[in-house]
Amino acid sequence: MGIQKKEEREYARILYVNERITYKEIASRVKVTEKTVSKWAEEDNWDKLRKSLLTTKQNQLTHWYNQLEAINEKVAARDNIPTNTEADTMSKITSNIQKLEVETNLGEYIEVGMKVLTFIQDINLEDAKKFKNYYDEFINAKLKHG
User: Fold this and answer.
1) DSSP label at residue 15
2) Is pLDDT at 110 greater than 80 in this prediction?
3) What Pfam families does the record tag this protein with (predicted)?
4) How far apart are CA 91 and CA 78, in angstroms?
5) Does residue 118 contact residue 144 with C-beta atoms inside 8 Å?
């Protein structure tokens, strides 16, 4: 595969993963056939990559903020008054953003706990062992009760 084809393929992948556009739109922008884009996506498992990036907290927040901005721009281009559907959608997106921004998931608890444990170990190994036991109980309680 020549350098140009590699660059086209990489550009297409970036468009698919980051901009969430269709194969047809990608083909048009990269100047290849839709069939070629589809083949690349299947061979390189673009769907899995897109999903893994979407599941991160920050990416989901970015996605929701982008959606909210798009609706606001659409409303501003008209009479600055959202339709009932737009207002409802904006409310739901805003609610999702607020929930996600304050939510701390289990992975984040574990990550912070490991950093604190490492810090304590450098100061006092016995205290670190005690902390580890308490932290394990905390994580188990989170698993059971949320």
Assistant:
1) I
2) no
3) DUF1804
4) 19
5) no
Residue 50 to residues 13, 20, 41, 75, 138, Cα–Cα distance (Å): 9, 8, 11, 29, 33
For 143, residues 6+ apart whose C-beta sits below 8 A from its C-beta are 106
64 and 97 in contact (C-beta within 8 Å)?
Answer: yes
Per the CB < 8 A criterion, the answer to whether 19 and 1 are in contact is no
How far, in Å, CA of 80 to CA of 68, rounded? 14
Asked if residue 79 lies in contact with residue 108, where contact means CB atoms within 8 angstroms, the answer is: no
Express as a percent the part of the chain with pLDDT over 90. Answer: 40
Q: What are phi and psi of 45, to 5 degrees?
A: 55, 50
DSSP annotation of 22: -
Burial 42-81 (b: 16+ CB within 10 A, else e): eeeebeeebeeeeeeeeeeeeebeebbeebeeebeeeeee
Q: Where are the alpha helices (DSSP H) in 56-105?
A: 57-77, 84-102
Give residue-wise pLDDT tens across range 15-57. 887 777 899 999 998 899 999 999 999 998 888 777 766 567 7
Give the DSSP H/E element, type plus range, for residue 11. helix 3-14
